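This section describes the prediction task in plain terms. A model, or a person checking by hand, is given the sequence of a single protein chain and must write out its three-dimensional structure as a string of tokens. No templates, partner chains or ligands are provided. The sample shown here is typical of the held-out split.
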Amino acid sequence: MKNRLAALCAILMPATALAQEPDPNTPDPSQVPAPASTDVIVEAPPPAPAPAPVVIVNPPPEQPRRVVLEPQYETVYDSYNAPVFTTGALVFAASYGASVIAAASASDENRERGFERLYVPVAGPWLALNERGSCPITSASCDRETTTKVLLIADGVFQAAGVLAMIDGILEPSSRRVRVQNAKVDTKVRVTPATVGTGGSGVAVFGRF
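The expected answer:
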């Protein structure tokens, strides 16, 4: 048995030596280039930009509005023009009063020469003037007569002017502007403190107009 093992070893030793000899066609492991790297490089995305800061600007507080109440007016027409009528009445009363006084205090001679006509309004002075007759201007006695005629003419003119003024005051009534106040509408304005905008202070004005 030992002899067989020795013989087998003797046979296998050359084969083992041949197996250990390097193959000239086999490259040297130290000279074989290293295989290419298969690592995948993944580039990271650039960081997102920082968000812009948000600036909150509070609006300035609103100024309280000024409420101007405009009064309303309407035109009211009178039944007559009181100032014009009153002026005419005063002028007529003064001139006619002077005629009545002159007629009442006239002498008999003047009464015969038309002074009694002065009791007639408006037309009285003209009737009396017509009855005075004519008198030469060159005569000294006519100076007083001329003065009387001038006074009669002035009296007649003022009486006529007073009557015309009264008629004008009646035919053309005056008008005036009157402020209108409607009791059904609340025209009062109320002012109260209020908050305006974002925390601003102000006033609030409200009412009915």
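For orientation: The chain has a mean pLDDT of 74.
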